[in-house]
Amino acid sequence: MLATIPAGVAAASPSTAVGQLTQTDLYQLARSPRMPAARAAHAAAVAKTNERQRALPSFSSSFTTAGITYPYTMLGAAPSTGRTVRLKTVVVPLRMVFSGFSQNATFVPAFAVQNMIRSPMYNSAPFLNGTGQFGDQFQRATFWNQMDPAHRWHTLLAEPKVSRPFTITVTPDTGSLDELNGSLIGNMNIDLFEAELIAILPKLGLDADEVPLFVTQSVTADALGFHDAVMVPAEHSGQRVQTLMWSSWLDPAQVGDLLGDVSTLNHEVAEWIDDPFVNNAAPLWAFPPFNTVCGDIPFVEVGDPQGNGPNFDLFPTVPVRLNGFTYHLQDLALLQWFSRETPSSAFHGWYAFPDPTQLTSPSVDCPA
Questions:
Q1: 53 in helix, strand or coil?
Q2: Omega into 288 within 30° of 0, i.e. cis?
Q3: pLDDT > 70 in the chain, percent
Q4: Are 254 and 181 a contacting pair, CB within 8 Å?
Q5: How much is the pLDDT for 8?
Q6: What is the pTM of this model?
Q7: Beta partners for 303?
Q8: pLDDT tens column, 219-236
Q9: Which of left, alpha, beta for 6 (phi over 0: left; psi -120 to 50: alpha)?
Q10: Phi and psi at residue 307, to the nearest 5°
Q11: Among 118, 142, 21, which Cα is nearest to 320's?
Q12: What is the sign of the dihedral through the CA atoms of 345, 351, 354 and 356?
């Protein structure tokens, strides 16, 4: 069930009517920026100047294109080492209570949490370049020709912890409640939503190398998900960088496969691994496949080229059957697409994953 409407609970008076959401409205939401830029930029600047504030295992390298060198830092060990790194996440269920509407509703993400943990993000599944977790196979496709000769290098998500649920209340002043295809979908202002996540962080008791994955079900926040880097107090003194992720879970029966189940989660997990501190710069690029609209995204955000553009619906999700459920994974751009490497040094010369046929050439400059 997507929403629980408390029996016998009268709507607040005066109440705000439940609206009507169209598929076009939802697609527009999907194209919204997923990165709260101001706070992320501040954290990225601090992280860049003080390596000791980064508690996650990471490696750094660079690429050069058009005579400009772009350094980057990614999670895991350097590909040439052949090491396996297991990144620690804590899944944080968010109970979203919509109050003050003509039809009040509470969205509980128990189904989403269970199925995210059972998904290819945390479990091995078959891909064209082998069997493994999605994020690991994405990275192995990217660095196939740069890793150790025995190809033992892996970047895995460890089995996650699951925290107690946290409740966030949304009113007509902070969000909206709408009906789509006979079921309800809630939305909250993105800045207020992120402020709630920041307030929850100290209550989680996270170790420095643990990263929260906040989860909502049938609730958006002016976007479908984001990853971020914020400053939090360090254990002894000063501050350190804390990365985080949020992903909504939407029912494919309600919204379609393109935005369903883990299509947002795999976007955010890969971006977190490839650009954890939101400061891996790349040349500005135009949205594929027509290259007529500038992305205006100066970072290696691997989900945005095919997930946030005006024609993102031309890039279908990739169905993966696992644990009795069909998951829908967004196709993502590999590093070689951003670096404009020709030919691509990725596995079999790919520019995209998990369906390499969806991008077959590197990015191009924004139109003049």
A1: helix
A2: no
A3: 90
A4: yes
A5: 32
A6: 0.92
A7: none
A8: 999 999 999 888 888 777
A9: beta
A10: -110, -20
A11: 118
A12: negative
